[in-house]
Amino acid sequence: RYFRPKPAPLYAATPPSLGFGEDKEPKKKKKTTTALMKRSPYFSLLSKALAFIPRRRPADAVHFLASHSYSAASGAPQSSLMAEYLVSSCGLDPDQAAKASKLLGRIESRHQPDSVLGLFKSYGFDNTQVKDVISANPRWLLLDVEKTLAPRFRALQDLGFSCSDITHLVRSNKHVINHKSETIVSKIQLWQRLVGSNDFFVKLCKRHRWFLGASIEKRIRPNIEILRDCGITDQKLSMILRRHPYLIIQKAEALKASISRVENLGVARTSGMFPQTLKVVHMITEKNFKAHLEFFKGFGWSEDDFLAAFRKCPTLAGVSLKSLQRKMEFLVNEAGCAPSYLALRPLILLMSLEKRLIPRHRIVTGLKSRGVCISNLSISTYVKYPEKRFVEKFVDCYKEYPELIELYNAAPKHRTSL
């Protein structure tokens, strides 16, 4: 397809003298121009450089541009045309397309990437989803549809996933496509058994993009056995993994270390609080735990007070210090709670300050100040009431005080939130 015209002679006559005097041996035959050219290293390099410049016949060039075929003979046209394809067919912006085209190597024609896009569209991917998938994984355009992609999608269907589920799985977890079919199927089947439903599995995959990357043999199964040895039943394990799947993704040594920390804090493996405490301990660092201990010491708690509160309510150590500061100040200074009272009732410190603690305390104290006889009801009791019961008991019964009702209704909605 390529031809190279024979280069014209560079010199028409004998090269001029370099100025070092006349030849001292006139009788010897002078070297010819051709011989000098062959011996010259500069000419040799120039000839080699010219030999590598491709020249396309006009007819071939027209066909190349018209059909958008991609050839490795020239990197610039291929990269440019591939970038154009990514913009027009996949919806990528020019900058994304320019970067992605460099990863695609040699593509002979549009047929290959078109077949990949066609498969995605047949499973319900819209234009935005196609753009997201291809921009994140441009090399998927090089995959063989019949041998690689189609079998992956059929395997997901056989596992009970709808087209909508498959769309979410492929978008959120590249391992679905990048791993071998047998590997990804065995991983999904294991997780289906652990979390109990395809819906929860899809949600986990959407929240955790690394979710399907962990090895079953090296990570998941060994960690499951460790947790079962701690007395955690499959039902409890399922509940933990729905919210905190990291537990069986980490290295076995790290999991064992977390278990030791929980036991050192006085929570036995047989305790009902063990699974939740293990989850919290895995999430927080030793430094963070000590910071919470020092914070509560500032309000008069002893170390034993803090550890007792933590064992009752492990998530206390996961609440931000800024949030705890505001809650403690309100409960101690405005609500009149003694710090020792709160140490025995740490659940109060998990409740929303704006949505529950403040509005409920103010309406109860408002009723008392108006002479309403309310039995000795402690704050730890009425803040725990379900929203419906609290409204019936302290709002609907006292419509003669519309200003209180208005004050309560003006508080943020969803007061049941903690």
TrEMBL record:
It comes from the Eukaryota. Residues 1-32 are annotated as: Disordered. The keyword Protein transport does not apply. It holds the Pfam family mTERF. Gene3D superfamilies: Transcription termination factor 3, mitochondrial. Signal peptide: none annotated. GO terms for biological process: DNA-templated transcription termination. InterPro entries: MTERF (IPR003690), MTERF_sf (IPR038538). Keywords: Transcription, Transcription regulation, Transcription termination, Transit peptide. This is mTERF family protein. It comes from Musa troglodytarum.
